Amino acid sequence: MSDPLPHYQRLKDFVAGEIAAGRLRPGDRIPSELELIRRFGVSRMTANRALRELEQAGAVTRLQGVGSFVATPKTEQALFEISNVAAAIRAGGRAYACRVVHLGAEAAPEVAAAMGLAPGERYGRAVLLHLADGVPVQHEDRCANLAFAPEFLDQDFTRVTPYDHLMSLGPLQAAEQVFEADLPGPDLARLLQMPAGEPCIVLRRRTWSFDRVASIARITAPSSRYRFSGVSGALPPLAASLPRL
Q: Which CATH class is domain 75-228?
């Protein structure tokens, strides 16, 4: 006769079963520690362990003081190559859409300097919200060199991404990328529909083509919905048999 399951495992199996059956869907609130304690007659330590391990497995997102929720599948985008967010979302089997928050010409001195432009020289700026199945997964604030992309401001970015447009104009020569974590301001948190206190991933990127800066972008994504990944160098054969990070 097999040993009975530990109490924490019974709780994990219950929550995982509700998710698998579709009774709990991405974003739904799951029973709290107190609710699990009352329903299953277990200790707080047992309930906490079950939820903690579900979070570690990526099935649950826990927000301090708010509760625990079914995790939304993360869209994954390659970090070490310059890639297209629309393609990354579609590759994950999700519907892609884009909302244009702002589009216009600007001439902020610090941005112009970072692009190698003369003082007062204007550049194109597009602020976009990328969505997967209607849920915001990435905020893109991109400034484009109009000497490189003179028709940047004429594009319909609900139909073509800045990546597609800029790559159509010339080959990528080089890129700088800085990756960091941050807490979004209230306006950005509202656009991304993020709970207060949830951290986000920020990728700052500057690209070159034909020996000039083509664009500068600040890409922000909720850490619970998006991740960047990549490989540098040639992996040995053993890597194919190892689980993904």
A: alpha beta
For the whole prediction, is pTM greater than 0.70?
Answer: no
Question: Any idea which residue has 């991405």 for tokens?
Answer: 26
| 227 bridge partner residues | 76
CATH number, domain 7-70: 1.10.10.10
Which of 62, 205, 53, 77 has its CA nearest to residue 130?
77
Burial-class residue 170 by CB neighbours within 10 Å (0-12, 13-18, 19+): middle
**What does the pLDDT read at residue 83?**
67
Average pLDDT in the chain: 84
Contacts 24+ apart (CB under 8 A), 43-51: 43/7, 46/7, 46/8, 46/11, 47/8, 47/11, 49/8, 50/8, 50/9, 50/11, 50/12, 50/15, 51/11, 51/15
Find all residues with CB under 8 Å of 76, minimum gap 6, and list them: 88, 92, 226, 227, 228, 229
| Positions of CATH 1.10.10.10 in the chain | 7-70
- pLDDT band per the 50, 70, 90 thresholds, residue 24: confident
3-state SS, residue 83: coil
Q: What is the pLDDT of residue 181?
A: 85
CA-CA distances (angstroms) from residue 110 to 24, 136, 142, 217? 47, 28, 14, 14
Regarding predicted confidence, which is higher, 79 or 68?
68
Domain with CATH 3.40.1410.10 in the chain: 75-228
